[in-house]
Amino acid sequence: DTAVSQTPKYLVTQMGNDKSIKCEQNLGHDTMYWYKQDSKKFLKIMFSYNNKELIINETVPNRFSPKSPDKAHLNLHINSLELGDSAVYFCASSPVRGRVFFGSGTQLSVL
Amino acid sequence: AQRVTQPEKLLSVFKGAPVELKCNYSYSGSPELFWYVQYSRQRLQLLLRHISRESIKGFTADLNKGETSFHLKKPFAQEEDSAMYYCALSYYNQGGKLIFGQGTELSVKP
């Protein structure tokens, strides 16, 4: 069974649209994250949630809004998509002090 | 500021050759160091963490606090080792977030 699953795997959309990426983990972890991998393959954290509460927000534009309905889910909603938002977005989870498990990524292409 | 540097963007070796992927870090405190690997079109997977002091798929990495380095080594590269390798550090008092280096693409030629 997949530990961290995110959907969709690919997302192609027009500038200005609003889209969401969903993430679920079945590991019982308290902490979930969103990371962005840009076109140069550089990975950077965007958000971190611990038990449904936001604990890290790394100067991400407020067009990006994470939502955690429960500790097993962390969704990412993006408003007014821009060309520069094109990237691979990875969801991840971890216990309080431990190994981080990553999802398989969502490749977002904004046209 | 906490920072991870991987000086090589691409490392190309022949099968059977030794491999060393460099990683240096700057820190304030006691970070935990990791190596993650991303095979083509797959998710990031943990390869090594310095507190485990283990060898995975023939890879080892030793934390050198004096040189602030955590280089990844393998004595004999295999074609299936071709992938993107990321060095990362984490501070538990920062919510467990990982700070990644720029990544090194390892290409092992037959």
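qc> The two ends of chain A are 34 Å apart (CA to CA).
qc> done
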